[in-house]
Structure formats: C-alpha cells, structure tokens
Amino acid sequence: MNLNATLFAxxxxxxxxxxxxxxxxxxxxxKALDERAKKIADGLAAADKAKTDLAxxxxxxxxxxxxxxxxxxxxxxxxxxxxxxLVEEARAEAARIVSAAREAAETEAAAATQRAKESLRxxxxxxxxxxxxxxxxxxxxxxxxxxxxAQLKSEL
Amino acid sequence: MSxxxxxxxxxxxxxxxxxxxxxxxxxxxxxxxxxxxxxxxIDFSVINLDTLFYSLTLGxxxxxxxxxxxxxxxxxxxxxxxxxxxxxxxxxxxxxxxxIHEEESRKFVAPLAxxxxxxxxxxxxxxxxxxxxxxxxxxxxxxxxxAYMRVVPTADLNATLGMSxxxxxxxxxxxxxxxxFGGWVHELFTAPFGSHPLLYPINFAMQLIxxxxxxxxxxxxxxxxxxxxxxxxxxxxxxGAAWSSxxxxxxxxxxxxxxxxxxxxxxxxxxxxxxxxxxxxxxxVYIGQAHEGH
Lengths: 156, 294
Hints:
The complex is a heterodimer. Helix content of chain A is 93%, strand content 1%. Chain A is an all-alpha fold. In chain A, helix 1 crosses helix 2. The longest helix of chain A has 131 residues, at 6-136. Chain B is built from nine helices and one strand, in the order ααβααααααα. The interface between A and B is large, with 35 and 56 residues. Strand 1 of chain A pairs parallel with strand 1 (42-43) of chain B.
C-alpha cells in the first residue's frame, strides 16, 4: 500500500467519468423515465375518463330506454282512448241511425195507417152510398148528399 | 495450517515454484512505471500502470454501458437492459434526492454517484476473475515470468484515496458555493462548539480532523475490504496449489480450495456490491453535509 502518482491520475479520471455521465448519460435516461411516468399518468387518467364516460353513456342509454318505454306506453294508452272514443262515436251514430230509421218507419206506418183509414173511409162512404142506393133503389144525387157524406166520413 | 506450511508444501511439489510468501508478495506488487517494487511508502514520481489501466478500462466500460442504455432510452416499453439501467438510475436518483436537497447540485452529484457506483462495482468485480489469469497472461505477453500485475484497482490505496480525495474536493467546492467563502470560514472556526474566541482553534482543529477522517476512512474502507478479499483469494489459491502434497494432505487441500473458494467467492459478491454502494452513499452523504450548516 504505497502512495504514488496513481492517486492523482485516479482523481482526474474520477472527475472525467463523472462529467461524461452528467453530460451524456444522466439526462436522456432521466428524461425517458420522466416521460414514461407522464405517459403512464396520462394513460391512467384516460382510462379513468373512459370509465366515467362509459358509466355516463350507460346512464344515458338507460334514461333513453326509460323515455322510450314511457312514450310507448303513452302512445298505447292514447290509441286505446282514441279507439274507445271511435267505438263510442260509432255506437252513438248507430243508435242515432237506428232511432231515425225507427222514427221514419213509425211515420211511414202512421202515414200508411192514415192512408188506409182514408181509403177505408172512402170505401165505407162508397159502401154506405152503395148500400143506401141499394136500400133506396133510387138514384141519390151524389152532389146533393156530398156534404152529408163528408160529414159521415169525418165521423168515421 | 499457516501460510508458511502451505507454501513449503507447494514448494516441495514444484521445485521452481515460488514459496507462499514470495507468491503473495509478488501478487501484491504493482506493475509501476519504474518496473520494480516501490521502495518508499510515498513516492509521487512513480505511477501504478496496472491500476491505471484497469481503472481506466473499467471506467470506459462503465461509460459505455451507461451510454448505451442512455442512447436507446425511450419513454416506451423498456427492454431488460434499459430496465436494469433505469433501476440503477432510479435508485441513485432517489438516494441523491433524499440526501442533497439542492436541485442544482444534484444535476452533477447524482450522475457522479451513479458513475461511482457502477465504476467501483466493476473494479471490485475484478476479484471474481481467477486470481492468476490476467497476471499470467501478462507474463506470457511480456515474456517476463516475474512481471508484476494486480487486476483489482480498488485494492490499490491510490485508487480509492484518489476517489475519496475527489469527494473531498467536491465537499470543499460545495461548502464555498453554498455558504460563500466567508460563511464557510466562519463555520470552520465556530462549529461545532460555538462562537467564542477561545474555541476558535479547537473548532478549526475539529473541522480539519473531520475532513481528514472522512476522506481517509472513505478511501481506506473500500481499499481495506478489497485488499483483504484479494488476500483471502490468494491464501485459498495457495491451498489448491499444494494439491500434490504427500499423503491425504494434498487432496484435502484441494477440497479445501474448492470449498473455501466457492464460499468466499459467493460471499464476495455481497462485499463487492455492498462496498460499491457504501462508497457511493458516503460520497453523497459527505457532499450533502457540505450543503448543510452546522
């Protein structure tokens, strides 16, 4: 263990190596490390964001589905109501038509009755006249007895 | 069994093989600029060529490994290699962040810590190569069978103290930068015992001792661990070298080498990584202390 000039040579080499490392080795490695750390941090943040986005989208989908279901139900109930209304209207119309028909029929029947009565009266009057003619065996002046016949008719 | 006995047996086994003592001393001698072992403890006219070569080579390998990862670094999905380097960078960056709160200082100190960790780890890991491979290769290349060569730069006090001195210089630099020269001088004389003229010399002495102790223990800790580790590998190698001893001793020594060598190599993995980590952490702590007032 003798001391000699190797000491100083080693001292100089020591500083030269340290300088070279400082200049050419340390910065790129540390830079790469820092960049990678940043990349990883960014990646993690992106993953987190994607997760929240996904949750948000899922929530939105659920909301949309719920809305669609609601509007579907609404439409159906509207359609049912509409159909019921239509049926109701149709029923009322039918009833109206039926009653109108009945009324017309009744009027018709009444008129027919009236007409039958009229003709019956006519016939009764003629029959009466004919009967009376046959009974009296003599010509009755229809003209002279028209008033009498008309009175008879209205009394029937 | 002592080293001498093992050596003697090894000596008996091969007449022209070195004795255990010679073997170890030879392996602990640096290939330096003079070509022969350094005579005095401190001699700045000498330079250890082997330490310099291996630490420089491994320094270049360190830079290449890191640069290769840095060149291809993308923020996309990392490959295994990039991932491994990123783990290292991240570890060092978070340690630096916990210790040094000045953002501006970290721009230099964190890369410095990364370099220290990888570089010291690679230099320590030279211990895993079989003890004699590179030295005998070198001896073959030079044709000199006594050529010296040590392959673990951190088992050379010059290398570890050189780095800890670098850390000391950084401490001084950041002391002045953060506190201002006046502020730092003020701290030198008033901390840790307080501001009183009588306490100035004591404070100053304490500060000097603190700086010296930090720096020397910083370098010595790494050196001691790697030197001791290397020495144990040498002792284990000596056991195996005596495999042809007479009787049952030889095979037993061989078995001992295999067992102890495996155990020590496995344990050494821990030491290699741990010491590199400790060296880096202490550098960070010392530089961090320079940022904080007493």
